[in-house]
């Protein structure tokens, strides 16, 4: 819920001075954001030289072994770089224009005499939108920076300055938001990066003794390659495992962090500024049913297919196969409510979504159930 003085006009425009200053600062910031990406690219480039030239050509003497080393290495490298490229350069999922609150409605909100009236105005506008999650005080989720109703699972990214569909987090190592459009690529990037590091580390182990005894050259590059690959592998294994866990439960990093702020939200839930601070770090609150951290979970297989698609041949290929549009999601509890509204028969031992093997059918039920109420 937004907080603004009553009787004042909404600030639609920035001054010329502020615009020019922000543009200069923004240009510098945008340039600096690419430094982590350039660092990763530099490490990959150096590791290529160390593995292909120093290890494979200068150290490995068996021709067959050298060919096998290079074939598998380049296969993993191609998938690694492909996934990384897709993660970095895929556009973020932006909120559709129909969620933007018109200027006339914003003026009505400003002129409202109390928060209850503001809430009613937003609720009336949101009736035509497929949103079922709410804030702590049961209000429609509104972003006063982007001036829009937030779709379910969308959050405002302070780095990108826009609301992003199914925002997981903003990752500086890819200079992009990890969100609905590139989450599959990000998971594959972590997996192939881990496989790359483990393969490089295991390939150098048999030659460690020769390096220490000085029987072969290239000691610095191969030794450093081993320790760097091990270091990155240790970091990646926990991160990759964590995101696989999130995929199987159909959660996001922002949603998972909610438990940290539970007591804070409970003690300060009466203050508007608290909503703005912790809204992204809480368990989803549904219009029907209240808070439910597993509200979007459809079962491990369905959760996996929601991100990776239903064609198993493309699961591990960095091409877009995610299901849905990033705006509407089938929900375990809410689908049951929607089925009841449509006159469907509920089964106590099966979730609504598990009975719906068609993703589009689940999406329709969600939208219909919201519009009927």
UniProtKB/TrEMBL annotation:
Subcellular location: Membrane
Transmembrane parts of this sequence: 34-57, 63-85, 185-208, 220-248
Catalysed reactions, as listed in the record: L-cysteinyl-[protein] + hexadecanoyl-CoA = S-hexadecanoyl-L-cysteinyl-[protein] + CoA
An annotated GO cellular component: membrane
Domain Palmitoyltransferase DHHC positions: 141-256
Enzyme class: transferase
InterPro entries the UniProt entry points to: Palmitoyltrfase_DHHC, PFA4/ZDH16/20/ERF2-like
PROSITE patterns with a match to the protein in the record: DHHC
EC number(s) stated in the UniProt entry for this protein: 2.3.1.225
GO molecular function, one term: protein-cysteine S-palmitoyltransferase activity
Similarity comment text for this entry: Belongs to the DHHC palmitoyltransferase family.
Record comment regarding domains: The DHHC domain is required for palmitoyltransferase activity.
Protein's UniProt name: Palmitoyltransferase
Lineage, top ranks: Eukaryota, Metazoa, Ecdysozoa, Arthropoda, Hexapoda
């Amino acid at each position: 819920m937004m907080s603004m003085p009553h009787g004042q006009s909404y600030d639609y425009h920035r001054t010329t001075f502020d615009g020019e200053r922000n543009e200069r600062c923004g240009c510098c910031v945008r340039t600096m954001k690419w430094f982590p990406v350039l660092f990763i690219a530099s490490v990959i480039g150096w590791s290529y030289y160390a593995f292909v030239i120093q290890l494979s050509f200068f150290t490995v003497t068996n021709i067959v072994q050298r060919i096998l080393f290079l074939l598998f290495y380049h296969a993993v490298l191609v998938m690694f770089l492909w996934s990384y490229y897709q993660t970095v350069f895929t556009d973020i999922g932006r909120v559709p224009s129909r969620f933007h609150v018109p200027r006339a409605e914003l003026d009505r909100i400003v002129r409202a005499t109390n928060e209850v009236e503001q809430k009613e105005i937003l609720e009336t506008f949101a009736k035509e939108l497929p949103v079922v999650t709410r804030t702590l005080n049961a209000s429609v989720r509104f972003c006063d920076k982007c001036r829009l109703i937030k779709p379910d699972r969308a959050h405002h990214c302070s780095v990108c300055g826009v609301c992003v569909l199914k925002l997981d987090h903003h990752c500086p190592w890819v200079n992009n938001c990890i969100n609905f459009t590139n989450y599959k690529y990000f998971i594959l990037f972590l997996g192939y990066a881990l496989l790359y590091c483990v393969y490089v580390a295991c390939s150098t182990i048999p030659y460690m003794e020769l390096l220490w005894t000085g029987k072969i050259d290239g000691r610095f590059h191969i030794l450093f390659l081993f320790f760097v690959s091990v270091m990155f592998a240790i970091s990646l294994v926990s991160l990759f495992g964590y995101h696989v866990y999130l995929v199987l439960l159909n959660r996001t990093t922002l949603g998972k962090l909610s438990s940290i702020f539970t007591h804070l939200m409970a003690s300060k839930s009466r203050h508007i500024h608290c909503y703005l601070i912790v809204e992204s770090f809480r368990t989803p609150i549904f219009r029907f049913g209240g808070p439910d951290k597993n509200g979007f979970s459809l079962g491990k297989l369905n959760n996996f297919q929601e991100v990776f698609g239903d064609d198993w041949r493309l699961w591990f290929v960095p091409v877009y196969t995610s299901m849905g549009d990033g705006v509407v999601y089938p929900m375990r509890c809410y689908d049951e409510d929607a089925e009841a509204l449509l006159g469907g028969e509920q089964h106590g031992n099966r979730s609504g979504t598990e009975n719906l093997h068609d993703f589009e059918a689940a999406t329709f039920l969600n939208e219909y159930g919201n519009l009927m109420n």
